[in-house]
Amino acid sequence: MALLETLNGQFLYEGKPLQILAGAIHYFRTVPEYWRDRLIKLKACGFNTVETYVAWNLHEPKPGVFNFQGIADIERFIRTAGELGLYVIVRPSPYICAEWEFGGLPAWLLADSDMRLRCFHKPFLDRVDAYYDVLMPKLKPLLSTNGGPIIAVQIENEYGSYGNDTKYLDYLRQSMITRGIDVLLFTSDGPTDAMLQGGTVPGVLATVNFGSRPGEAFAKLRDYQPDGPVMCMEFWNGWFDHWGEHHHTRNGGDVAAVLEEMLKENGSVNFYMFHGGTNFGFFSGANCPSPDVYQPTITSYDYDVLLSEAGDPTDKYYAVREVLARYTDVPELKLPEPSAKLAYGRVQMAAKAGLFANLNALSEPVDSVYPVPMEKLGQNDGFILYETRISGPRPAHELHLQDVRDRALIFVDGRYMGVIERWNPQAKVSFEVPKEGVKLQILVENMGRINYGAYLKDAKGITEGVRFGYQFLFDWTIRTLPLDELGRLDFTGSEDGETPVFYKGALHAEQAADTFLYLEGWTKGVVWVNGFNLGRYWNRGPQKSLYVPAPLLRPGANEIVVFELHGTESGEVEFKAEPDLGSTEPPQKN
């Protein structure tokens, strides 16, 4: 029998009333060395539970190849929470949204052009089953029914915002039960009729997600679940940022007031987020509210919540703790010492390795009659290069990419001609072809697969074809560039920066401390520290610095590699002791 039950409109744990006061910390957005620190701060604030998603694409990067080490060691994260006396809510839905690449779904699902996502489609369910056969045995010993801290598990995430396949939802429920998941199961959806009708399952607890007006949200939940407890599974006390937007913030007093409303109704709550962390590597997702609007998410997942990206309590932390203290026994405030933060200063990035000069070190060429997307070539993320020849002579024509996902740099005989972006129909590239013909190269960047809404099926690269004027171009050489192994790069080049270049420098540190990397004068690209992919940077903002946790550094020399797509004015990077997530005002239009 599950230890957490529902009766007469409330949660009971071991027969005693329990008001769940939870905060979200995603293990995959915080380096493992800092998990205990963040969890201690959660408990000190007055919370009794931590909630986390489980990112399928992190754990199964290739079909049948599983990873549960390092930042993917979910068992260690859950055990650490239990050691601190926290309950754990786990949300291992195949899909998690979370502003995470493809909503947590593995990119390799899209290698099958006929794949149908998040429905009762046997090829999809077969892959879910294979994943659950590995994941659920890891969670089972950590269930509260087996002496562990996990009190509840989610079967799908905001499904009513996507579909209404109740057969699919029930299949997921049964998939968990047959694998020994015998704790409380739940769903979470927006507080509307359509969402609750599409996303709930008979016999499974329904919860709702919102950022304000809790009275209205809980009333709608009671329409569908009159005898159950009310819980906000995602209380949006902050928000995330897209590239090119302003940095979102929310007043702490407003957050505290909404929380008080929930607690007065004896509602349970999960703060989304308590600590946001960082979208390291290529794991940031994107939104696509309509076919012609694509909004990639920045590297920082600070979220303007109770703990900053670097794990420091904010004013919101203390405002929330003050409210919680009126409704529960809050422990004495004993916080760990703040992490040391150092300004290491400037680092000269003198060594260069041109992308085109190092293609053989990074990939193997693949011949194809037509361009194919990344997934068909077994690639999850990064960049992909398409190359062909156009015969001449020809007058100037426009180059059409049909369709590009997401951002393409165009080179003709090695000369940069411009950029084509899926979200910017005004960006056009045209050129003439001389009698001897030209070599056309198209470098496409995956800026993050869509993580929410109707357009999840988001293959990357060039998905259909390339036309020069009216004529489709055939006979391509393709190179996948996931950039997951840079050790063979030759940094003795002297490229002028018109083509993409890797730059390398050394940060010398007497001690390892948290720091923030600034790339003033750089344009757009990716940064690695000691081989660890920090994520993307882009001068269009709002984010102006990248968080570098101390565990990524070591005393002595630290290798810094920057892959710059468009060129740099400085050739230096700088490490400061404070972050800059950008202005809270919308950027001025150029």
Automatic annotation (TrEMBL):
GO terms for molecular function: beta-galactosidase activity. Keywords: Glycoprotein, Glycosidase, Hydrolase, Signal. InterPro entries: B-gal_1-like, BetaGal1-like_ABD1, BetaGal_gal-bd, Galactose-bd-like_sf, GH, Gly_Hdrlase_35_cat, Glyco_hydro_35_CS, Glycoside_Hdrlase_35. Residues 371-481 form the Beta-galactosidase 1-like first all-beta domain. Gene3D superfamilies: Galactose-binding domain-like, Glycosidases. Residues 500-558 form the Beta-galactosidase galactose-binding domain. Residues 10-326 form the Glycoside hydrolase 35 catalytic domain. Coiled coil: none annotated. GO terms for biological process: carbohydrate metabolic process. It catalyses: Hydrolysis of terminal non-reducing beta-D-galactose residues in beta-D-galactosides. The active site is at residues 158, 234. The keyword Coiled coil does not apply. The keyword Glycoprotein applies. It is an enzyme of class 3 (hydrolase). Belongs to the glycosyl hydrolase 35 family. This is Beta-galactosidase. It comes from Paenibacillus ginsengarvi.
